[in-house]
Amino acid sequence: MDKMDRIDPSSAFPKQEGAYCPACGRYIGAYTTCPYCGTHIKERISVKALKIFSLVFSVVGVILLWWAAGRHMVPQIQAAEIDNRTNFAYVQMKGVVLRTPTYDEKNRTLSFQIDDGTGAVWVKAYGAQAEEIVKEGKVPAPGDTVEVEGTVRLKGDFVNLTVNLPEKLKIIKPKPIEIDIAEITDSLYGTVVKTVGIINYIRKYDNAMKIQLCSPNADACVESYFYYSRFPDLNPDEFERGDTLILVGMVSTYKNKLQLVPRSSEEMWHKKGEKPKRTLTIGK
């Protein structure tokens, strides 16, 4: 029996370091001192230490997987690349808002259009997502650059991007260019500008107020529409011909006529004035 327990150190039989006595070659298991020859065995990694190491390694692995999932890049596409192959795909888009966003409170639907230079796409949010965007004041204004993630939906020629996570909607507000009304041309289409002018005329409609804003010498004019849904606190009766208006808006066109699309109530300043004695020519 003793011969069976003893292992010749010169033997080619594979030995496990720490499981056999390095002096006599007998199997000693978990002992730290050889029960046969009394040789002290150097400290070995305990089973408990191995369990702790395994647990730590598993936790670190889960954290790394979570980090890698969070760093997963959502593909960014352009409007011109959207076709049947991208239908229901989750993508990222970036573009400039060229129209005043609309929010239907009854149906809880938010809509606005972005243009990335290759085409235009409607961005839509519904239900709780739309309510959260409106509540947090994350509705973009005309001229804002928007970075958004969502699901592509195709229905015939109509394309929209549905926002699933409100936190994936990022708005980049531009710094307005200060210019005179006479300097506003169609070459500035989509650009946010700040200008000052005198109200030449006012048109009141059920859902909006239209004004024509002219330079002091009336050599140039531009029209602006103020929709009550976007400007709920606007009182059209407070505006009169001859008043001065400082306005930040996005340059646009409608039926080949220049327009200045107002952005928000916080970006317009109204000052009452006397009716001008000079005659302003409408349409210039």
What's the short version?
The protein is mainly beta. The chain has three helices and 14 strands.
Tally of helical runs: 3
Q: What is CATH's topology name of the domain at 177-271?
A: OB fold (Dihydrolipoamide Acetyltransferase, E2P)
Q: Which of globular, elongated, flat, extended, rod-shaped describes the shape?
A: elongated
Average pLDDT across residues? 86
The count of β-strands is 14
CATH class of the domain at 177-271: Mainly Beta
What is the percentage of strand-forming residues? 25-35%
| CATH homolog superfamily of the domain at 177-271 | Nucleic acid-binding proteins
- What is the element string, with H for helices and E for strands? HHEEEEHEEEEEEEEEE
In terms of per-residue confidence, which ranges show pLDDT below 50 for 5 or more consecutive residues? Answer: 1-5, 9-15
Structural class: mainly beta
- The quaternary organization reads as single chain
State the end-to-end CA separation.
116 Å
CATH architectural type of the domain at 177-271? Beta Barrel
What is the share of helical residues? 10-25%
List the helices and strands and how they pair.
Elements: H1 2-5, H2 47-70, E1 90-97, E2 102-104, E3 109-115, E4 120-126, H3 127-135, E5 145-155, E6 158-162, E7 169-172, E8 177-178, E9 192-204, E10 208-214, E11 221-227, E12 244-254, E13 257-262, E14 268-271
Parallel strand pairs: 4-6, 8-9
Antiparallel strand pairs: 1-3, 1-5, 2-3, 3-4, 5-6, 5-7, 9-10, 9-12, 10-11, 12-13, 12-14
Descriptive labels:
single chain, five-stranded mixed beta barrel, OB fold (Dihydrolipoamide Acetyltransferase, E2P), seven-stranded mixed β-sheet
